[in-house]
Amino acid sequence: MIIAIVIGFLVLIGIFFYNSLIGKKNQVTNAFSAIDVMLKKRFDLIPNLVEVVKQYTNYEQGTLTKIVELRAKATSGNVSDAERAQIDTQLGSSINGLMLNVENYPDLKANTNFINLQTTWTESEEQIAAARRTYNSAVTDYNNAIMMFPGSLFAGMLNFRPETVLETAAEERKNISAKELFNN
Amino acid sequence: MQFDVKNNVALQNVLAAMEVERKKISAAQTKGYLGIGLGVLLLILGFVLGFPAAGVVALIALGLVGGIILYRIGDELHAYKDAYKQNVIGAALKFLDPSLTLKPYEGILAQEFVYSQLFTKNPDRYKTEDLVSGIAGKTGFYFAEVHAEYKTVHQTKNGTRTEWHDIFKGMIFVADFNKNFKGVTVIRPKDFGAALGAWFSSNLFSFGNKDLVKLENTDFDKAFVTYATDQVEARYILTPAMMERILNLHNSAKYAISLSFIESRMYIGFPLDRNYFEAPIFKTLLNPQLLDDDIAAIKFMYDIVQELDLNTRIWGEN
């Protein structure tokens, strides 16, 4: 009788830990797809941004072409996650560079469409940063669970591997300063 | 620039006029309370010396006289307190920012208090007053004094006994937030109960529609427990810079603050142990430090907009 109770208890604990591990793993997947959603939102912004900037600037053609190419590459679908992450970083820095150069084009700076795009851009930048931080938090939670006892027992049996956290780009760690970005 | 009560001629004239009124009220109140006190004393003496009937008569007579005096000064007291809020506190508000207004009989409605989700319990008794509203830069805000209580009913030998407990006593501050968001994010101080709830929520199961948000700022996570309907949105609101600012605000407040973000608005609850903006009765109005505490409280609230950088509008909330 006692043995049956003990076994029952152990099975219950096992189910509980197994479910909690699966839950944490799913959270990591979820958080990763949240980054994708945010990135998609940013990609959608790019064509409009390029159109508006084109009308006002003659000197940024090189940057604009690069941005369009990068976007096409990222959305083409046949790139790996790692490549996409890299393209994304390049895209981010190109566009941020472009935003800084806006200083040289007073007409563009005053254009309402451009101002709207700028705010949406900043919004999406910070949403991406938030999604990345969420992903990192989910990964840390998951890694802790599979590395600590008794989660480590199940993780070994189920072949669960630790995930790596995303490196936050240096500019994301800084406070976003309106003045620095747009010189409003 | 400091609001200088002493050298403000207009305010000094108002205060001088009100001081006469205050003296009259304080004299009447002293007489009224003395009358009642004397009545009680004579009652006790009557019982001690063996003339209980005389004691009762003395109490009724003196109590009646005292009561009438207090009742008759009631209207004047009311008018005096109103005038103080309108003319004295009002002047201090206008000096700080012309957009600031004080409405003594308005406040934050009980529905809004519940809606803010700052506290888990719903109030059974709710009082609010002294609504101050204004605009600091681009950010509209308002705050008011709130006292919310819940009751517990105990069975005793003689029936039931009702006890009242504070949910919150202090100021509730509300401001337009500078980012768009759809969900709810609630930040509560990390006391024992909240820490236990957070442990359950992250290790066993979560309850309600909000999940625990573990943030990377360890100081922030030590001071607060954060729940949100959307993990990403919570981090969109609570950027690393915002967490630092909230921590600073928390450290400059006397008691642990609670915050919530709902429908592009932010709510902050500051627990306080005194009632602000009340006219003194037994202390002179001509004391240069008269308004120091009240002004400090208003300034603290007004500066939150700066402190939390709510005027930076680069995220599509204009």
UniProtKB/TrEMBL annotation, chain A:
What domain of life is recorded for the organism? Bacteria
How does this chain sit within the bilayer?
Answer: Single-pass membrane protein
Under the heading Gene3D superfamilies, the entry gives: LemA-like domain
Q: Name one GO cellular component term.
A: membrane
* Alphabetically ordered keywords of this record: Membrane, Transmembrane, Transmembrane helix
Q: Into which family does the record put it?
A: Belongs to the LemA family.
Name of the protein in its database record:
LemA protein
Look up and give the organism this protein is from.
Pedobacter rhizosphaerae
Automatic annotation (TrEMBL), chain B:
Task: Report the domain of life of the source organism.
Answer: Bacteria
One Pfam family this chain carries?
DUF3137
Note whether Membrane occurs among the keywords: yes
* Annotated transmembrane regions: 32-50, 56-74
> Which keywords does UniProt give here?
Membrane, Transmembrane, Transmembrane helix
The protein's name in its UniProt record: Galanin
Species of the source: Pedobacter rhizosphaerae
